[in-house]
Amino acid sequence: MTADEIGPGEIGHELVTPVALEDEREAEATLRPRRLSEFIAQDRVREQLELLLQGAMRRGRPPEHILLSGSPGLGKTTLAMIIAAELGTGLRITSGPAIERSGDLAAVLTSLAPGDVLFIDEIHRMARPAEELLYSAMEDFRVDVIVGKGPGATAIPIDVEPFTLVGATTRAGLLTGPMRDRFGFVGHLEFYEPHELDLLLRRSARILGVKLTDDGAAEIARRSRGTPRIANRLLRRVQDYAEVRADGVVNAANARAALKVYDVDELGLDRLDKAVLNALVRSFGGGPVGLSTLAVAVGEQPDTVEEVCEPFLVRAGLLARTPRGRVATAAAWRHLGLTPPDRLTFLERLPRAGSGRADSMGDGATPIPDLFNQDL
Ligand code: ADP
């Protein structure tokens, strides 16, 4: 997913946005793991994919279609590339928004070589006619190309070579039922734990020749919003700082000083994250408030707030999605340096529910009772 696909707003210019910035494609390409064994963490998805790919190779047939869901920057494109590399096949890359007409998709599909992997990023943003064309390609390896218009129009069936579709989405819930049903495997990528990002940073430092200390890795890992793309980006920025202003070593002191210059806080929240929390707490008394009202208050598209910003705020225990709207948790109030209202501290004292993963997000994490943690 690219910065220009995210729509209006300034988010593409933020240091901790999980969306790829224009000028970092090359740096990202250098750091992309090429094989499944190099791909860090996400053990469950990795193991399942390994079985799927090995099974298919034994049978000598392309594996079933694969859907990868998860927030931007967690490794969906990387996995698609790895899948093609492991299978030893060609890879074609496109994205939902880039396929405007079904003819565009038909052209891609009919030019695939046997066994190729077709990667469609942001597959939930594909136009409906193209999606319908994709159904028959996925199921029967055939597309009906319509020639002519009006009553004289005829459908000419064209065969497509057996291929594997790898679809990526930040919003699995937005996929239509028929689309979801055509994927034989669905893998969900989670945010990374700090110790996993630690490993990732060491690998990147090795490749880039950066001198990275243990405490430097831990400091950057903690502030990377659970996202590999951000961890790699912060590593490069701290390296700049260390080389220009210090001894060239990426240690905790240099990381803290550099990230202060770049305005990245202890949890790695970016401008939009902070704007959302500020609006929630200061303008709406902590909520509940509806997504679109919140998005207007921070001058962003609701989709951007929901797909780019909220998943991490929920994961970090700062925001809850409730049936009545978005709510700031007690930890969010404290993170902004404010005293949470009594009703929230009361909820905090209730027996703990929700996932254990939020625990590791550091001091800002707060327990979220189940009633608070429901999706809309
Ligand atoms: P997405 O497609 O989900 O937005 P990408 O696959 O483009 O994310 O990953 C962003 C960057 O993060 C890539 O450059 C890649 O090097 C790195 N990355 C992502 N996941 C991993 C991982 N598990 N191990 C190592 N690097 C990773």
Mean pLDDT: 87
Kindly report how far apart the N and C termini lie: 25 Å
Structural class: alpha/beta
Overall morphology: globular
**Number of individual domains:** 3
Q: What percentage of the residues does DSSP assign to strands (E)?
A: 5-15%
| Spatial arrangement of strands, main beta sheet | 2-3-6-1-7
Number of helices: 15
| Strand elements, count | 11
**What would CATH call the architecture of the largest domain?**
3-Layer(aba) Sandwich
CATH class of the largest domain, named Alpha Beta
**What fold name goes in the CATH topology slot of the largest domain?**
Rossmann fold
Please characterize this protein's 3D structure.
By secondary structure, the chain is an alpha/beta fold. The chain is 44% helix and 13% strand. The protein is built from 15 helices and 11 strands. The protein has helices at 25-31, 43-59, 76-87, 102-110, 128-140, 177-181, 194-208, 214-222, 228-245, 252-261, 271-283, 291-298, 302-315, 330-335, 342-349, and strands spanning 66-69, 91-95, 117-121, 142-147, 154-159, 164-169, 185-188, 211-212, 249-250, 319-322, 325-328. A 5-stranded parallel beta sheet has the order 2-3-6-1-7, with helices on one face. Strands 4-5 form a two-stranded antiparallel ribbon. It has a two-stranded parallel sheet with strand order 8-9. A hairpin with a 2-residue loop joins strand 10 (319-322) and strand 11. Helix 7 crosses helix 9 (228-245). Bound molecules: adenosine-5'-diphosphate. The site of adenosine-5'-diphosphate (ADP) has 21 residues, from helix 1, helix 3 and helix 9.
